[in-house]
Amino acid sequence: MIKDQKENPETTRLPKELVDRLKRPFVRFLHITSAGGAVLLLFTVAALVLSNSPWADSFEHVWETPIGFRVSSLEFARSLREWINDGLMTLFFFLVALELKRELVLGELNNPRMAALSISAALGGMIAPALIYLALQSGQPGQNGWGTVMATDTAFVIGCLALLGSRIPQSLRVFMLSLAIVDDIGAILVVAIGYSGNIVWDALALAALGLVVLRALAILGFRGFPLYFLVGGLIWLAVDASGIHATITGVILGLMTPARRWVSDNRLYEILDQVIAHPGIHESSADTKDRETLQIAEVAVRETLSPLERLEIWLHPWVGFAIMPLFAFANAGLPLTFNGLGNSVTVAIFLGFVLGKPVGILLFSWLAIRSHIAIRPPELSWRLLIGGSLLAGIGFTMALFIANMAFGKSLIDSAKLGIVLASVFSAVAGLALLMWLPARGKTP
C-alpha cells in the first residue's frame, strides 16, 4: 500500500474542494506586496469623494457613532473612528514590531552596520521634519502638531517601489522598508510620550504585571495563541486606562514575541518519517498509534515556524487589506478647497515632509557612513538614496494617525490637506527621479 501511495501523486496532496479553485488567484493576489498600497489608495480616494459629496454629513456622522462597554467601575467608550484608531491600529503596530524584530534577528538587519544605515536615516527623517515644522509653527496654534511630519507610510512607499520593478536594486527596497518600519516605531513612541494624557500609575502597574505574566507563560512553555491574545487584550485595556496611548501595547508585545522556532528541521523530518512508517490506511475515530503520529506531525509542521513568523503570515493580509484601508476610509476625508492652501499649518506640514524628510535622511546617512557606524551596499548609490528619501515624504497613514491627536477641529482639515499634498508631491517626485536614474546609469 505504501508503494501505491508513492506511485500515485494524488495521495500526497490534500483533497480539493470548489473553494480551492476560487482561493488560488486570491492567495496569489495577497502575495503581491504592492496590492495593499493599491487597496489603501482606493479607500483614500473613496473617503475624499464621499467627504465632498451631498452625503458628506452622513459619512462623517457614521464615524462619530459612540460605542462602549463597562467593566465594574471602568467605562470604555469612544467613537467608531476612535476604536479604529486606538484598537485596530494596535494590530498594525504589532505587525510593524514583528517585522522589525524579524529583520533584526533573521533578516537583512542582522548585520549591525547594515542596520545602522536604516536606523540613522530613519532618525534623520524624523528629527529634520520636526525641526522644520517647529521653526514654522513656533508660538502658533499648530505648534503641537510637530509629530505629524515624522513618520513614513510603509504601504504607499513599498507600493511605489513595486511600480519600478527591476529598474531598482533590491537593496533600495530593503533600505526603504527598514527605514519605514523604524519610522513607524519612532512615531508610536512619539505618540506615547508626546500625546498621552496624565498617567494613572495603578493602571500602568497592572499593565506591567500583565507583561510579566505574558513572559512567564512563554517560559513555562504555553504555546496556544488564544491565551496570549487574551492576556494581551487585558494589557491593552490597562494601558488605555493609564493615560498612555494604548497602541504602544502593540509595539511592546510585538518585540516580546519569540523569534526562535520550537521544532528544528531535523526533528521534523524524523517525525515525518514516523508518519510514513504508520500511514494510517484505515479510517477510525479511536486513539491509535497512527492517529497519535499524525497529531504529533501536525504540531511539528506548525512549530517549525517561530511564533513571530506565524503571526506575521497570519496578520499581514488582515492589516494590509482590512485594517489600513478601514483606517484611511475613516480618517482621510476632508473638504477639498483652494482656500486652505496658504494656511500656515498646511505649509509647515508640506515643507516638513517634502524638504525635511530627504534632507534628514541623506544627512544622517552620510554622517553614519562617514563615521564608519554604518556601511552602504555598493549597488545602493547616493542617487538612488535621493530618490528613496523623496518617497519617504509619503507620510499619509501615520501622519493622519498623529494629526487626529495633535490638532483640534479648527486645524485638522488644514493638517490633512498638507498631508495629502505632501504625499502626492513626494510620490510623484520620488518615482520620477527613480525612473530616470536607471536610464542614465547607476553611479555610486
Give a brief description.
With 444 residues, the protein is an all-alpha fold. 70% of the residues lie in helices and 3% in strands.
Question: Keyphrases for this structure?
Answer:
single chain; 444 residues; mainly alpha; two-stranded antiparallel ribbon; 2 strands; disordered C terminus
Q: Can you characterise this structure?
A:
It is a single chain. With 444 residues, the protein is an all-alpha fold. Helices cover 70% and strands 3% of the residues. It contains 18 helices and two strands. It has a two-stranded antiparallel sheet. Helix 5 packs antiparallel against helix 14. The chain is globular, with a radius of gyration of 25 Å. The N terminus and C terminus are likely disordered.
Helix content: 55-70%
End-to-end gap:
62 Å
The largest sheet is: 2 strands, antiparallel
| Rg for CA atoms | 25 Å
Beta-strand portion reads under 5%
- Widest sheet: strand ordering: 1-2
- What is the averaged pLDDT score? 81
Tell me the structural class: mainly alpha
**Runs with pLDDT <50, length 5+?**
1-5, 20-32, 439-444
Q: Please count the helical segments.
A: 18
